[in-house]
Amino acid sequence: MKPTTAPACQRRPTSRLPLPALCRALLLGAWLGLGAGAAPAYAGQWDVAALMEVLAGNPGGRVRFVETRHISLLDGTLESRGELVFVPPDRLERHTEAPQRESMVLAGGTLSLERGGRSHTLRLRDYPEVAALIDSIRATLAGDRAALERHYALSVGGSAAAWTLDLLPHDSELARIVLRISMAGEGAHVSRVDILQADGDRSSMRIWPPGQ
Hints:
Distance between the termini: 35 Å
Number of strands: 12
Low-confidence stretches: 1-16, 33-38
Strand content: 35-45%
Shape: globular
CATH superfamily: Lipoprotein localisation LolA/LolB/LppX
Strand order of the largest sheet: 1-7-6-5-4-3-2-12-11-10-9-8
Mean pLDDT: 76
Largest sheet: 12 strands, mixed
């Protein structure tokens, strides 16, 4: 089936893009850390620099996920599950298996979506808010803390064995999408990602390596 690219006059506003899924997929692609179950020992202070060192050098891999979304306009929650795949340096796939099959592939500056037998292709340059989010997360892949802090205020807690990371966007473009991103993990493995969106929606995603 031939993918389609929306012309400029028909492009949806950024707020209607699949931002919840996209934001979480980007974050998880940057911080999968598969196969690193043992927490490294740190003699010094556990801080942002220490966490960035642990999370840097991600070789890519696969994780399973279960995501619970709370939609501000709905009474109740939505749950989805599936698999995330990250292939360095910039290919990220999210394959949702339930409640309905859906695939999202981010490669370079292109986002491809497939659902219900239909596919669409979006150019990220047409959505500057999303592009800013992607650039900031990809900076983490390169271990570029300075670039990350241009977009977020970072706060780290806990220890290498059980850490937390809060990201508060101080970039006005990003603040139109998300208010806060909170993560938790052990060593180089991220076990939970919570996102509070600017529109009041929120979500929580639990992540684990295949076979666990």
